[in-house]
Specification:
The complex is a heterodimer.
Chain A: E1 5-13, E2 19-28, E3 33-37, H1 44-51, E4 59-64, E5 67-68, H2 73-78, E6 80-83, H3 95-105, H4 110-123, H5 139-151, E7 157-161, H6 169-184, E8 188-192, H7 196-202, E9 205-210, E10 213-219, H8 220-225, E11 229-236, E12 250-255, E13 258-264, H9 269-278, E14 283-288, H10 292-310
Parallel strand pairs in A: 3-8, 3-9, 6-7, 7-8
Antiparallel strand pairs in A: 1-2, 1-4, 4-5, 9-10, 11-13, 11-14, 12-13
Chain B: H1 3-23, H2 25-28, H3 30-51, E1 53-54, E2 57-58, H4 59-89, H5 93-97, H6 103-129, H7 140-164, H8 170-184, H9 197-203, H10 207-220, H11 227-250
Antiparallel strand pairs in B: 1-2
Helix pairs in contact in B: 1-6, 3-4, 3-6, 4-6, 4-7, 4-8, 4-10, 6-7, 7-10, 7-11, 10-11
The chains are: A alpha/beta, B mainly alpha.
Membrane topology (chain B): Multi-pass membrane protein
InterPro entries (chain B): ABC-2_transport_permease, ABC2_TM, ABC2_TM_bact-type, ABC_2_transport
Domain ABC transmembrane type-2 (chain B): 23-252
Chain lengths: 311, 257
């Protein structure tokens, strides 16, 4: 099957000599919901910039649905929609005009562009704002406006660079639902985000990039299976003056009602609860200290940097 | 993209450009009209009546074609320079760069947007001029062609200026320090026959002189220079500017990293 996006040995060195990408390779399959994660400055936006032609690559190959961007970039662009990290629309244009005009840039007849503009502005809850200048919109509305604009030509591959940055939780969840629906309808989605909960909840496959290299590229499920330890916060009904005996588990008392316990891979939670019950400690609730993907993400980056230090 | 989709893309850019300068008409259409009206009143009517004839015509008749051309040139230039630089500044130029629209279509759309503003301002200035003098065009097609070509040329120049510009100051430097002197010394207000041979020769290096005189020839039937050379010169410059602009776009000069 032809990959929706195929990146081979992609390199980018900026004019000042900074090597942003050191030869990364990964594929995204059609219909996938793919997370491209990494810390700030890792090379995510450079990768996206190259895919959509705003950044010139130094080496390597990029194909979108089998179309090599070096051979027929316009055809590849027709398949691609991009929602950038920063607002990049005219602040003085009306919402309707911004979306409809973008359809024209893709060669869509005016009538079709108008129909699609209405469709996506309604789906993204912006129809009432269609005659408003973009600068008057809230941050969340501006993000949705960029999504509507990217969808106007109904691309088969949609890339979203931190689409929910600075968006409140309610709106973020409604955007997740919308993106899941788009993905269900067949659009391949690549997402970069700093909210790892978002990546874990939406994406099936993942690539983690750090300092211009891919440090992990696998399915989210496989990645989570490699988690060697999880840290839980346990809430006790009684006030505790000292940390109870945790029966072989490492942990500490955070405050008189809160225990932090680390459970290694292979250890059972049942034994932990048995040990606590034996000491008369009643646990009323339990939660992960951090998102599981977040724990993995941090440990992968730490390993990567340790590896660099060892060399 | 095929020719139909390219045409759609071109008309979309052009429509957006026209929408932009008509939306901010108090900034784009009114000031040149007021300025030119003042020129008509002061230079044409008040001072002109004391100057007497120039090139065999009253000073008002002589100065009107030059002022119309000056309005077309400055408005074509500034429209594209400010519009394309604003698109760079607000980053909405990326809307076009990520689309399949070819670079030459992007250029053509912006340039024709500048031409549209230049011609609209030129038309309004012409209508105002009719309050001050009778204008009977001697060579209609020549007049229309040279004014169109001049608008294209200066729109292209504005486009290139916007590509190189890094700040709003950069798009006012060329109009202030290059375009205005060239226009004022380009035979708008006087015939170069009034100058000494040395200054006449120097004036003939000024491209604006050729456009103003070709336009004046179309309207009045008189010119300080050979009109055929004016057309050749403008066409050559249009081709060179277009090639330069396209080269800059293709290499992503200050547009892509």
């Amino acid at each position: 099957m032809t990959a929706a996006l195929s990146i081979k040995n992609l390199q980018k060195t900026y004019d000042n000599g900074f090597q942003a990408l050191k030869g990364i390779s990964f594929d995204v399959q059609p219909g996938d919901f793919f997370a491209l994660l990494g810390p700030n400055g890792a090379g995510k936006s450079t990768t996206i910039g190259i895919i959509c032609s705003l950044v010139r690559k130094t080496g390597g190959n990029v194909s979108i649905f089998g179309i090599d961007i070096d051979k027929d970039f316009p055809a590849a662009k027709q398949m691609l929609g991009v929602v950038p990290q920063e607002f990049n629309f005219s602040q003085f244009e009306k919402v309707y005009d911004i979306v409809c005009t973008q359809g024209g840039f893709y060669g869509m007849p005016r009538k079709l562009a108008e129909e699609r503009t209405e469709k996506y502005l309604k789906q993204l809850g912006l129809w009432d704002k269609r005659d408003t200048q973009a600068r008057m919109l809230s941050g969340g509305m501006k993000r949705r406006l960029m999504i509507a604009r990217a969808l106007i030509h109904e691309p088969q591959l949609l890339i979203l660079d931190e689409p929910t940055a600075g968006v409140d939780i309610e709106l973020r969840r409604s955007m997740w639902t919308f993106l899941e629906e788009i993905n269900r309808q067949g659009t391949t989605i690549i997402l970069t985000t700093h909210y790892l909960e978002e990546a874990e909840s939406l994406c099936r496959n993942i690539a983690i990039i750090d300092k211009g290299d891919i440090v992990e590229n696998t399915s989210i499920k496989s990645l989570l299976k490699t988690l060697n330890r999880e840290t839980f916060i346990l809430d006790s009904s009684e006030a505790l003056s000292t940390c109870p005996d945790l029966g072989g588990y490492s942990g500490r008392l955070i405050d008189e009602h809160c225990l932090e316990v680390t459970v290694e891979k292979g250890q059972s939670l049942t034994e932990l609860f048995a040990a606590l019950t034996k000491q008369g400690v009643t646990i009323t609730s339990m939660r992960n200290r951090a998102n599981r993907l977040e724990e993995l993400f941090v440990s992968l980056l730490a390993e990567d940097r340790k590896g660099e230090g060892d060399q | 993209m095929n020719s139909i989709t390219m045409w759609t893309s071109f008309t979309t850019i052009l429509r957006r450009e026209v929408r932009r300068f008509t939306r901010i008409w108090p900034q784009t259409l009114v000031p040149p009209v007021i300025t030119m009206s003042l020129y008509f009143v002061i230079f044409g009517s008040l001072i002109g009546s004391r100057i007497g004839e120039m090139g065999g015509f009253s000073y008002m008749e002589f100065v009107v074609p030059g002022l119309i051309m000056m309005a077309v040139i400055t408005n074509s230039y500034s429209n594209v320079a400010s519009s394309f630089y604003s698109a760079k500044f607000q980053r909405n130029v990326e809307e076009l760069l990520v689309s399949p629209t070819p670079n030459w279509v992007i250029m053509a759309g912006y340039v024709l947007g500048g031409v549209a503003r230049g011609l609209i301002v030129g038309l309004v200035v012409t209508l105002i001029a009719l309050f001050f003098t009778d204008l009977s065009v001697q060579h209609l097609w020549l007049t229309v062609s040279i004014v169109f070509l001049a608008a294209v040329l200066f729109s292209l120049a504005g486009f290139i200026n916007a590509i190189f510009a890094n700040s709003f100051d950069d798009i006012s430097i060329i109009p202030t320090f290059v375009l205005t002197p060239l226009t004022y010394l380009g035979g708008v207000f006087y015939s170069i026959e009034l100058l000494s041979p040395f200054w006449q020769g120097l004036s003939k290096l000024n491209p604006v002189l050729y456009m103003v005189n070709a336009f004046r020839y179309g309207v009045l039937g008189v010119s300080d220079i050979n009109v055929a050379w004016a057309f050749v010169g403008v066409l050559v410059f249009v081709a060179l500017m277009f090639a330069w602009g396209l080269h800059l776009m293709t290499h992503g000069k200050r547009l892509r990293h």
